[in-house]
């Protein structure tokens, strides 16, 4: 069975159901022609939408406002246009229906934004909040919600750490505020804070999943999400206090809606491939490099161990190892089902999904995900008592090799032996190589489960006075197992299963939260006051336990560590974190045009000692709605304009538990038969909060009946009192002391968001959106930097993400070796004094350009993601050209003889120490950094809604979707988003069928 088969693989049961509904519901209708004109009472409205209610059948008014539509007497017409109130009219026996739409000045502002502890209309918000709705997420064939947000929100920078399903993400909202403490945003799912810290043990997973990062958000089905709000500035995040210092990502899952019970079925299947391969030497080029390298080293008789060139291996063999190891086709299959409905009092939703994705590696490695969610909402007849209960459960199972194969694919000599011999057994070529396929018997598997439960109870005592209690519980479990059988080694070694080993790790994190809240509103002096006060109590506990077993009777027993001859505990750890807070918000909206929002919060954290556990944070937000002023109020060309600004403070305690205390660890090796304790950190009573100050000023404008909407914002965040480790003399027995440094970091920049309606006609509509971020990061001050260990990685006035590098001047035309700038002119090139070149890998700007085109029942949506940045290129972390490993074709531009020029120095096979040492400096110079800017067709979705019977509420949509489809870049180091030695984001194509009954 070929993997291409899976592109069309839809389970028979669902296929039969789909065909039944298509043939049953698709039928012609007996209609009569309705016509008319849409106006605003003075002028015709072009592009107004006229549809038959509960169907997808409709039309759009032409330039003169006229329309024609087939309809029946029982139909109801829905007429809508941006900036005007939607109107519904029963057709009856009418043949001509002229419509006058009433302008709705608040149409744009009626969009409700989730701000966490409260909701706010778009027009009235004083803070920076971006919203991404379910439709945007569902149009992308992604495994996680974070992947769906890439390029969609200004100020939100998301990078995949690996292309493997189940991997992690690096997420930054408006840059890096802390030098070493946490910079991750706060995630809140249905009102419950969700810790996205990885539970994985890096010793088991770090070689295949970078940093051992496994994002717990992977267990949440993206299609169960109703909306995601990103809170960025002080005003929007202040109500979360220190937890919102790095921004907040609010995720709201789908809830039941009033009306007829609906059943939905969502099936998709697709292919997964690598986006871009590195350009490597073929066998002829590689062998020519090796020959020249030995000649440069003065060696004419090739060593016995140089199998690739001395004739042991076939010099005419060529294998594209990238194709063998990471060039396979993976497949993805997803099935989702949901049911929802309810009445005025009670609403419900239940849904579940299954997803499986194989890797681009050889052999049967795969990732599986199972999810289920339920919601139940109820309110009393008088609408005073309201109850909502939500649960989400997800289970991930990931089976992978113990290390990413892309490094083997890049560096294995192209004329290396065949993987299998003539009999189909692993080929060891007379013990001249370690067959890389043997290493695939060494496996890493993990199983991650997450349970999130939330209950919200509210009661209105009197009008405009509500008491609410939010209860939340989360539980995450991670089970990991790494198996290393003796068969990964050459049989010539004579090893048995007694040399096999297995390592198992179990981790659990549980958390509960209670948040009582009181909301009150009152009209005062032509305005409205809204007051929110509340508190938070939260406790989080974590446990981890690991075992290493070796010496098995046979490899079949490796899954059961109790059968190991030798057993050792690798980790036994538990911690507790407690958090408490009081918060208050007062909002005053005067005459619907002047808005003041004051927020305060007092936080308490168990991560600091007595006297430093509590801190106060707050913010003020102001907004002025210009279009409510007389000088703009009656202007037809401008619908809405607002200026807003905010300023506030936040904190940071993301430094781990017990960091202020004297701590100890148990030594794994006994001394004189006794197990002892080793001190790991010193007590520091002054250890306290990092501080962050945030400022923003922005403007929102909507023009020409909402055909052009834009928002421009400038922000400036400054963080100080940095949480760092102070280096100590080795005579103290400790390497460092955790403390607060007098260091200051700035993050500032511009954000631009634009939405436009480009074209509208009877059958066609084209909308666009642009998100642009221009961030700046700078270390403003660092007292004592020159005398600290941070002097090798930080420079005042430069970003935090820099590399301090040697300056490559070029190649000495006589020696053929690299030459570097000796800044202190002492005759030596040293790391401390001569690494003065600054390499900055942070993006100069980034964003996305989205487009949505609709023609009758067809819809095309696509996003172009773009980034201007530098990256680590093909020379980073490499051995000198001439060694027994493949290289990028870039090394062909090299020095060959006296007086010759080239970009790469003379080849060496390793016998010229001066050349080797020079190459090491080369890989620490500005030569390893080059332009990694790119434009990527991040996602596209082409969908078609089948024309079903209008009397039915059934809908069926067929879609072709893609992710990371095309990449335009001059970068030569592979994919421009690729981390060295790990898979880049993968290209995906998917066919999707969505049916709703």
UniProtKB/TrEMBL annotation:
Membrane topology: Multi-pass membrane protein
Compartment annotation: Cell outer membrane
GO cellular component: cell outer membrane
Domain TonB-dependent receptor plug residues, every copy: 122-248
Annotated TonB-dependent receptor-like beta-barrel domain residues: 425-964
Assigned keywords, A-Z: Cell outer membrane, Membrane, TonB box, Transmembrane, Transmembrane beta strand, Transport
UniProt similarity note: Belongs to the TonB-dependent receptor family.
Name of the featured protein: SusC/RagA family TonB-linked outer membrane protein
Organism: Xanthomarina gelatinilytica
């Amino acid at each position: 069975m070929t993997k291409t088969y899976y592109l069309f693989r839809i389970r028979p049961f669902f296929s039969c159901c789909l065909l039944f509904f298509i043939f049953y519901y698709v039928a012609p209708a007996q209609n009569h022609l309705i016509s008319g004109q849409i106006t605003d009472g003075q002028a015709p409205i072009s592009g107004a939408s006229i549809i038959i209610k509960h169907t997808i059948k409709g039309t759009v008014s032409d330039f003169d406002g006229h329309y024609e539509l087939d309809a029946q007497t029982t139909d109801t017409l829905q007429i809508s246009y941006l900036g005007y109130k939607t109107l519904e009219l029963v057709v009856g026996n009418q043949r001509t229906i002229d419509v006058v739409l009433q302008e709705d000045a608040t149409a744009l502002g009626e969009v409700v934004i989730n701000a966490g502890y409260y909701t706010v209309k778009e027009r009235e918000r004083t803070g920076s909040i971006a919203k991404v709705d379910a439709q945007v997420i569902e149009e992308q064939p992604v495994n996680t919600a974070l992947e769906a947000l890439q390029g969609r929100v200004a100020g939100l920078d998301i990078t995949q750490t690996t292309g493997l399903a189940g991997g992690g993400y690096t997420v930054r909202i408006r840059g890096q505020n802390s030098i070493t403490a946490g910079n991750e945003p706060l995630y809140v799912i249905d009102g419950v804070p969700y810790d996205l810290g990885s539970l994985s043990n890096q010793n088991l997973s770090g070689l295949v999943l970078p940093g051992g990062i496994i994002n717990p958000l992977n267990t949440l089905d993206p299609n169960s999400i109703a909306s995601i709000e990103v809170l960025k500035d002080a005003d929007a995040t202040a109500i979360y206090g220190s937890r919102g210092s790095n921004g907040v990502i609010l995720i709201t899952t789908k809830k039941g809606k009033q009306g007829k019970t609906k059943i939905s079925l969502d099936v998709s299947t697709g292919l997964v491939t690598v986006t871009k391969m590195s350009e490597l030497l073929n066998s002829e080029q590689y062998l020519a490099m090796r020959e020249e390298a030995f000649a440069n080293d003065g060696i004419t008789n090739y060593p016995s161990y140089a199998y690739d060139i001395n004739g042991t291996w076939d010099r005419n063999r060529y294998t594209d190892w990238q194709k063998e190891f990471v060039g396979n086709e993976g497949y993805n299959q997803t099935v989702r089902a949901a049911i929802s409905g309810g009445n005025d009092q009670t609403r419900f939703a239940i849904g579940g999904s299954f997803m499986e994705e194989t890797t681009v590696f050889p052999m049967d490695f795969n990732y599986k995900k199972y999810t289920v969610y339920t919601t139940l909402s109820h309110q009393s007849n008088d609408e005073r008592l309201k109850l909502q209960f939500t649960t989400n459960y997800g289970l991930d199972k990931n089976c992978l090799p113990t290390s990413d194969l892309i490094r083997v694919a890049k560096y294995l000599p192209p004329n290396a032996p065949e993987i299998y011999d003539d009999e189909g057994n692993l080929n060891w070529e007379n013990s001249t190589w370690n067959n890389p396929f043997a290493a695939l018997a060494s496996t890493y598997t993990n199983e991650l489960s997450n349970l999130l439960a939330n209950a919200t109870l509210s009661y209105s005592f009197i009008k405009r006075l509500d008491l609410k209690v939010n209860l939340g519980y989360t539980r995450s479990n991670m089970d990991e197992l790494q198996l290393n059988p003796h068969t990964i080694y050459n049989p010539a070694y004579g090893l048995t299963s007694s040399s096999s080993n297995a390592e198992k790790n179990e981790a659990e994190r549980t958390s509960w939260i209670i948040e009582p809240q009181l909301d009150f509103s009152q009209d005062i002096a032509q305005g409205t006051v809204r007051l929110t006060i509340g508190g938070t109590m939260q406790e989080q506990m974590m446990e981890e336990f690991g075992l290493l077993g070796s010496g098995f009777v046979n490899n079949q027993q490796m899954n059961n560590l109790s059968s190991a001859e030798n057993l050792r505990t690798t980790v036994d750890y538990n911690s507790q974190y407690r958090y408490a807070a009081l918060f208050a918000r007062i909002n005053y909206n005067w005459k619907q045009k002047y808005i003041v929002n004051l927020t305060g919060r007092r936080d308490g954290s168990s991560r600091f000692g007595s006297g430093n556990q509590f801190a106060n944070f707050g913010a003020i937000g102001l907004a002025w709605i210009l279009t409510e002023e007389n000088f703009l109020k009656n202007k037809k060309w401008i619908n809405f304009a607002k200026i807003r600004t905010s300023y506030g403070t936040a904190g940071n305690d993301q430094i781990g538990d017990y960091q202020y205390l004297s701590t100890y660890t148990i030594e794994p090796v006994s001394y004189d038969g006794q197990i002892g304790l080793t001190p790991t950190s010193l007590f520091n009573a002054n250890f306290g909060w990092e501080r962050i100050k945030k400022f923003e000023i922005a403007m929102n404008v909507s023009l020409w009946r909402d055909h052009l909407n834009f928002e421009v914002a400038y922000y400036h965040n400054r963080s100080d009192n940095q949480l760092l480790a102070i280096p100590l003399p080795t005579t103290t027995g400790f390497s460092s002391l955790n403390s607060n440094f007098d260091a200051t970091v700035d993050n500032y920049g511009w954000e631009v968001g634009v939405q436009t309606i480009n074209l509208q006609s009877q059958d066609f509509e084209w909308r666009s959106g642009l998100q642009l971020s221009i961030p700046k990061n700078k270390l403003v001050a660092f007292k004592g930097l020159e005398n600290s260990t941070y002097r090798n990685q930080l420079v005042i006035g430069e970003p935090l993400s820099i590399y301090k590098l040697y300056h490559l001047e070029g190649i000495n035309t006589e020696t053929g070796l690299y030459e570097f700038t000796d800044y202190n002119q002492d005759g030596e090139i040293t790391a401390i004094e001569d690494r003065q070149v600054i390499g900055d890998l942070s993006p100069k700007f980034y964003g996305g350009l989205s487009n949505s085109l609709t023609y009758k029942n067809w819809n095309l949506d696509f996003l172009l993601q773009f980034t201007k940045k530098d990256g680590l290129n093909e020379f980073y972390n490499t051995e000198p050209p001439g060694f027994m490993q493949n290289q990028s074709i870039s090394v062909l531009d090299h020095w060959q003889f006296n007086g010759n020029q080239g970009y790469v120095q003379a080849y060496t096979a390793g016998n010229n120490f001066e050349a080797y040492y020079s190459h090491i400096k080369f890989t620490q110079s500005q030569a390893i950094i080059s332009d990694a800017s790119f434009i990527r067709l991040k996602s596209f979705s082409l969908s078609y809604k089948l024309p079903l019977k209008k009397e039915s509420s059934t809908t069926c949509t067929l879609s072709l979707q893609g992710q990371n489809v095309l990449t335009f870049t001059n970068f030569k180091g592979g994919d421009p988003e690729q981390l060295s030695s790990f898979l880049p984001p993968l290209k995906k194509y998917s066919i999707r069928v969505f049916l709703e009954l």
